[in-house]
Amino acid sequence: MPDLKNDFDSLVGKARLSDDVDRRTFIKAALGTGFAAAVLPVCAQTVIKTDTVGLTAGAVEVQINGLTVPIYRAQPEGKRNLPVVLVISEIFGVHEHIADVARRFAKLGYLAIAPDLFVRQGNPAAFASIAELQKEVISKVPDDQVIGDLDACVAWAKENGGNVDKLAINGFCWGGRITWLYCGHNPKVTAGAAWYGRLVGDKSALTPHQPIDIAATLKVPVLGLYGGKDEGITQDSIQQMKAALAKGSSKSTFVVYPNSGHAFNADYRPSYVEADAKDAWKRVIEWFKSHGVS
């Protein structure tokens, strides 16, 4: 097993060698590698590693309103007309775990896209604590910006081998909330999977809606995957979301794992629950297939 912390420290150290290093160039080079400082040290013994054999995988760039946005892309080598899945990260950005999830989807025949949705606000990997990361980066990211970036990624996929008539979205934590919101925004999404994403909460100019606000009008079927021991996302909020969804026609559903807390799929963290993570992954693949994504 490689020394993941040293790999990350090495990348950060190289980025600091010169003030002339272009930040976006560094982010593109680092995309899909290492782990954010706020979650180090990682549980290296449980980190899942999916190889790139038979895949085209790595960082590419998408131009969005004059800005270069790096994305991690993984897909079966030499194939086109592929079902597309957007892979939306936690607050920690597109690190090794998110890239690995993209490769897992690619091994199943998907064009998987994991965009750096924080590129305008900062590099999540560089902050030493979750509190600092939340304050300096995440709290400054507008929902409208994220939605626009995802629209641009879908357009890029259409021009680069993807069949956007078979479009899925899969998000974790921060990305789980975005999954609900994007499915509400884009009715052309075929199906979504939201892993422990916040459902209710305060609103602001940057976050004018929460998933519960769009539940009744949602058209896209979303599979919600949550932990019964999650202290940040209460069972009461899940019940509220279920009641709101029942007023609509999306046929979204929840699976709650009673023995898991938050981030139970994060195989690089102590929160990882292998049995529940594997079961949830199987359910996601079946969910997408049953709704015609693949």
Jot down its keywords.
20% strand, disordered N terminus, Rossmann fold, alpha/beta, 294 residues
Q: Secondary-structure blueprint of this entry?
A:
Elements: H1 4-15, H2 23-30, E1 55-64, E2 67-76, E3 82-88, H3 96-107, E4 111-115, H4 130-136, H5 143-159, E5 162-172, H6 174-185, E6 191-195, H7 211-214, E7 222-227, H8 235-245, E8 253-257, H9 274-290
Parallel strand pairs: 3-4, 3-5, 5-6, 6-7, 7-8
Antiparallel strand pairs: 1-2, 2-4
Helix pairs in contact: 5-6
Structure commentary:
The chain has 294 residues and is an alpha/beta fold. It has one domain: Alpha/Beta hydrolase fold, catalytic domain (Rossmann fold, 3-Layer(aba) Sandwich). Helix content is 34%, strand content 20%. It has an 8-stranded mixed β-sheet with strand order 1-2-4-3-5-6-7-8, sandwiched between helices. The longest helix is centred in the middle third of the chain and has 17 residues. The chain is globular, with a radius of gyration of 18 Å. The N terminus is likely disordered.
User: What order do the SSEs take from the amino end to the carboxyl end, as H and E?
Assistant: HHEEEHEHHEHEHEHEH
Could you list the spans in which at least 5 consecutive residues all have pLDDT below 50?
1-21
Strand order of the largest sheet: 1-2-4-3-5-6-7-8
CATH-derived topology: Rossmann fold
Task: List the domain count as a whole number.
Answer: 1
Strand-pairing-aware structural class: alpha/beta
Short description:
The chain has 294 residues and is an alpha/beta fold. Helices cover 34% and strands 20% of the residues.
